[in-house]
Design goal:
The complex is a heterodimer of chains A (247) and B (262). In chain A, a hairpin with a 2-residue loop joins strand 1 and strand 2. In chain A, helix 4 crosses helix 5 and helix 7 packs across helix 8. Chain A contains eight helices and ten strands. Chain A is an alpha/beta fold and 247 residues long. Chain B has a domain of 157 residues: MetI-like fold (Orthogonal Bundle). By secondary structure, chain B is mostly helical. Chain B is 77% helix and 0% strand. In chain B, helix 3 runs parallel beside helix 6, helix 7 packs antiparallel against helix 8 and helix 9 runs antiparallel to helix 10. The chains are: A alpha/beta (247), B mainly alpha (262).
């Protein structure tokens, strides 16, 4: 469970103040899939970094499972837009990295990594280096790596932003499948309405700079969803009316 | 373009041989038809001399043993430079204050060629082996340090963040992130350092020695033996090339993750 209360973040650069997040309050229930939908380049990654503990809010507070976030912790897993895989480690090495840090013996680590590599559909690529994989496959490794550390919370920061349209659809379906098989509390960032609608239990719509919470939509469509069902398209139209254009 | 070769490896080898043969032909033609013949022996005389000196002694030793003597010096000096330089460079890269204090010193040392240390080395250590080791070591160490430093200080902070999120402690981040991330840069420094130390040993031997590849060149000069000088120079070139290739091979084994393609 995640709870952000009145979170604000201001960056200071040579005396110039740049307010990025302004009074953001939101709650994410256990095993809920929340998509944070926001336009432009403003603040979404900062919000994820604050929830992760890699950055600090200038005002307000963030708690995860009732505890104040004050630094990185393995209970929160992050999936990055640019994958952030360790290029010198194989798929197996990347996925098993967290358990290795925790001191799990090699054999158990391998079994655990194998389980999540299978889950994301990468069996047979255990010994491959990231450089040899396609964008979609790298992102699968990123998801498996986060999962393998057994976090209660998964933070996904525009994970499919760099993928081509076709792969992106495929990965949305994969994330839905993986999450349905092994549920976690998920915060998923995107600027793509369709992606948000396909994945979310609830969509939190953000405004542009400084970022505030603008709106919330509970999505009750049955899973897996159909991108072209009338209900889906109707919701898509409704939400797009609320999205600020950046122009 | 039409593909002429089965794969790029054979292509490289074929062109390599072509360029060597071409060089020999141009050299031979120049010697046969121009006044260069007064100062320059034909390549086949030089190659013949090299072949001969594989079994016949020059000043008490056959050519391979002279080269071995030079190699031994390089390995001692270079090894010293590695075991001091790599850790020092990495430490500089990890600690901001350490870097701020130490880096200007090396930036100043960098443009001083290893050979400029020869007079000081002789005054400090005499003309024996120690001064040669010292010269080779200082020639190699600066680029080794600066590259290891660059590698350790340019580690992608997103990767560090990712490792922290996965539960890595500072010592684990150093061991599992900073070190492997710096390896390609460290090797770039080792490569430059190795060729510097090979150059340094030749220079050091030319000043004062009684064996080694540099010694062959100087004695060639002293006795007016152009063939011997050229033979020495060619062996130096070949050995230098061999050393660089060897290191590249090791690097390829260690950094296969960094190489695109198959």
């Amino acid at each position: 469970m995640i709870s952000c209360k009145h979170v604000s973040k201001t960056f200071e650069n040579n005396g110039q103040k740049n307010e990025v997040l302004k009074d953001i309050s939101l709650e994410v229930a256990e095993n809920e899939f929340v998509v944070i939908l926001g336009p432009g380049q403003c603040g979404k990654t900062t919000l994820v970094n604050i929830m992760a503990g890699l950055d600090h809010e200038t005002a307000g507070s963030v708690t995860v499972n009732g505890k104040q976030v004050d630094g990185p912790a393995p209970e929160r897993g992050v999936v990055y837009q640019k994958t952030a895989l360790f290029p010198w480690l194989t798929v197996e090495g990347n996925v098993g990295f967290g358990p290795k840090m925790a001191g799990l013996p090699k054999k158990e680590r391998k079994e655990k990594a194998k389980h999540y590599i299978d889950l994301v559909g990468l069996s047979g690529f255990e010994k491959s280096y990231p450089i040899k994989l396609s964008g979609g496959m790298r992102q699968r490794v990123g998801i498996a790596r986060a999962y393998c550390n057994n976090p209660s919370v998964l933070l996904m920061d525009e994970p499919f932003g760099h993928l081509d349209a076709q792969t992106r659809y495929l990965m949305q379906e994969e994330v839905e499948r993986i999450w349905s098989q092994d549920k976690r509390t998920v915060v998923f960032i995107t600027n793509n309405i369709e992606e948000a609608l396909y994945l979310a239990d609830r969509i939190i719509l953000l405004s542009n700079c400084p970022t505030t919470v603008r709106n919330e939509f509970k999505i009750d469509l049955p899973r897996p969803r159909d991108y072209i069902s009338p209900e889906f398209l109707k919701l898509r139209e409704e939400i797009s009316k609320h999205v600020e254009t950046t122009e | 373009m039409k593909k002429k070769f089965q794969n790029s490896k054979t292509e490289t080898v074929v062109y390599f041989i072509c360029s060597l043969v071409g060089l020999l032909i141009v050299w031979q033609l120049a010697v046969s038809f121009t006044s260069l013949q007064k100062v320059m022996p034909s390549p086949f005389v030089v190659l013949g001399f090299i072949g001969q000196s594989l079994t016949q002694k020059i000043g008490g030793k056959i050519l391979p043993l002279h080269i071995l003597a030079s190699l031994k010096r390089v390995f001692v000096g270079y090894f010293l430079a590695c075991i001091i330089g790599i850790p020092l460079g990495i430490l500089m890269g990890c600690s901001k204050t350490g870097k701020a204090i130490v880096k200007p010193i090396f930036e100043l040392l960098r443009p001083i060629p290893g050979l400029a240390w020869i007079p000081l080395a002789i005054l400090w250590f005499g003309i024996g082996e120690t001064s040669k080791y010292f010269i080779i070591c200082v020639s190699a160490i600066v680029s080794i340090i600066l590259n290891a430093y660059a590698g350790a200080s340019q580690v992608d902070q997103t990767l560090v963040g990712a490792a922290r999120m996965l539960g890595a402690k500072p010592a684990q981040i150093f061991l599992y992130i900073t070190l492997p991330a710096s390896v390609p840069q460290i090797f770039a420094g080792l490569q430059v350092g190795l060729s510097s130390s090979w150059m340094a040993v030749i220079a050091a031997e030319m000043i004062r020695a009684n064996e080694g590849a540099g010694w062959i060149i100087t004695t060639g000069m002293e006795s007016g033996n152009t063939v011997q000088i050229l033979a020495g120079m060619i062996s130096i070139g070949l050995v230098g090339l061999l050393l660089a290739s060897l290191l590249r091979l090791i690097e390829r084994g260690l950094c296969s993750w960094n190489i695109q393609g198959r």
